[in-house]
Structure formats: structure tokens, C-alpha cells
Specification:
Length: 147
Amino acid sequence: MNARVLGVDHGEVRIGLALADPLGLTAQPLDTLERSGDRRDAQRIAEIVAEYEIGTIVVGFPLLLSGREGRAAERTRKFASALRRRLPAVSVRLWDERLTTALAERTMIEGGVRRRKRRQSVDRIAAVLILQSYLDAAEADDPEAES
């Protein structure tokens, strides 16, 4: 894998970011951005894309449990479009993220992370879960991968 992959958890208040290692095997937490509007947020992500030589952005797509799209999915689709306009050379993919924020929260609770710290970290951890799910699926679909 040449270009790296960036995972994005697009929340109402914050955007969690995770970065794949250069081989595209593991996701690590990167940063949490306070939301400031789709255009500004896309600009900030564009700076990260340039810094880390990102080729693909995986944006968590918050479908309802039924699989249908709600308001959060609509907002995320709009944000992904803003990223595509700002970064035409980068592949922007929507990735099913159902329950990742809940899983991130539960994982931190089980790890004894205090409520205040969880609030600061949940978006970044959700981005890691989204990105790792994407990387695992890409690895499973790779015919060159060892069995």
C-alpha cells in the first residue's frame, strides 16, 4: 500500500481521526477536531492529507440499525461531498459505522477511563474502530494476502 488511509468519525460536535500504519494493517488514533463547518473542517483535513500523504479517506457512515439513512447519515454524506470537492485526487469512501461510538464508549468504560476523558477520546477511538474495520475488510478482499 503506497498512500496511507485516514479514518474519520464525523460527529455533531467533534471529528475523530485515525491513521493507518504505512502497510495498511493497523489503525492508530490521530487527533480530535472541534467542528467548525464542513468547508473549514474539509480544509483542516486537507492539511492532514498533505502531511501524511493520504490516498484514501474512510468516513464512518452512521446508518440506523435498520440499515436506513437518518439525519446523521445525511450530514455525513454532505461532509463527504465537501471532502471530495476539496480533495479530488483522494478517494473518499463511506463506511458503515453502526455501533462504533457505543463500542468505543463501552471499551473505555471497561478500561476504567473516567467520564471526562471518555468524552475527549470517544470520537478518536470510534475513528480507529471504523478504520480498522475498513482495513480488515480490505485485507480479507486482497487476493495477494497470505492465507
